[in-house]
Design a protein that fits this description.
Helix 1 packs antiparallel against helix 2. This protein is an alpha/beta fold. The C terminus is likely disordered. Helix 6 links the parallel strand 6 and strand 7. The termini are far apart. It is 28% helix and 25% strand. The structure holds S-adenosyl-L-homocysteine (SAH). S-adenosyl-L-homocysteine binds next to strand 2, helix 4 and strand 4.
Length: 228
């Protein structure tokens, strides 16, 4: 952050950061990271006018880029530091990944829609995010090779948290996830791995697209349907 401290934030970025502050986000590292991620590069051209608004927006495949306030709340809840190896499930547009990248050592991120996975790869390359590793696959299975992780973040709501994921946490590790049915109540939950097991906290009601097990049956046809 000091590296680019001399670059002033755009007016749109400043406005968004002020809105997040007014909504109660006080973590300066998270606010600085969010001010510097160009959200306009993560939304479809049709929504450019709203790129810096504090709203969720469609990104194709029936998915959404999360609302900035929710990204801020989840990033704060994750208590991430520059020593941490982070697993994110649900890359989507890649916006949350790009917010995490400057705050941690490395982000591993998984997406089950091939088209979203590929688009996010292009964005990470354009932004030169050297500490992001991506995978096209089913995140409910976790990512065994680089495990354990210091932090795990789900950006899609699990009706029930897949048991494999807490097991991939390092000792003292933290997992943050929306938990609940697609159309029912969802709660942002924080799990902390202790010496003896797991501690759970409920952080507040949220609304997310569902975590879906497995890969889309026919990615090509889904992509065509979503673009009409
Ligand atoms: N963090 C994203 C939010 C995207 S919405 C952003 O800021 O843009 C959640 C994403 O989770 C969607 O792209 C959806 O396809 C993905 N997802 C749902 N179930 C998944 C699974 N089992 N594995 C990987 N990704 C999944």
């Amino acid at each position: 952050m000091t590296r680019r401290a001399s670059t002033p934030l755009s007016i749109s970025a400043q406005r968004l950061i002020e809105e997040l502050r007014r909504a109660g986000i006080a973590d300066e590292r998270v606010l600085a990271a969010m001010g510097r991620v160009p959200r306009d590069q993560f939304v479809p051209a049709a929504f450019l006018d709203h790129a810096w608004d504090n709203v969720a927006l469609p990104i194709g495949q029936g998915q959404t880029i999360s609302q900035p306030l929710v990204v801020a709340l989840m990033t704060v809840a994750l208590e991430v530091t520059d020593r941490h190896k982070v697993l994110e499930i649900g890359t989507g547009s890649g916006y949350q990944t790009a917010v995490l990248a400057p705050l941690c050592r490395r982000v591993f991120t998984i997406e089950r829609h091939q088209a979203l996975h590929q688009e996010s790869n292009k964005r990470f390359a354009a932004l030169r995010l050297g500490n992001v590793t991506t995978r096209y696959g089913d995140g409910t299975k976790g990512w065994p090779e680089p495990a354990p992780f210091d932090r795990i973040l789900l950006t899609a709501a699990a009706a029930k948290l897949p048991a494999t994921l807490p097991d991939m946490l390092a000792p003292g590790g933290v997992l943050v996830a929306p938990v609940g049915e697609e159309k029912g109540q969802q709660m942002l939950v924080r799990l902390r791995r202790t010496e003896t097991g797991f501690e759970t906290e409920e952080l507040g009601a949220v609304r997310f697209v569902p975590l879906v097990e497995g890969l889309p049956r026919n990615p090509r046809r889904q992509g065509e349907a979503a673009s009409t």
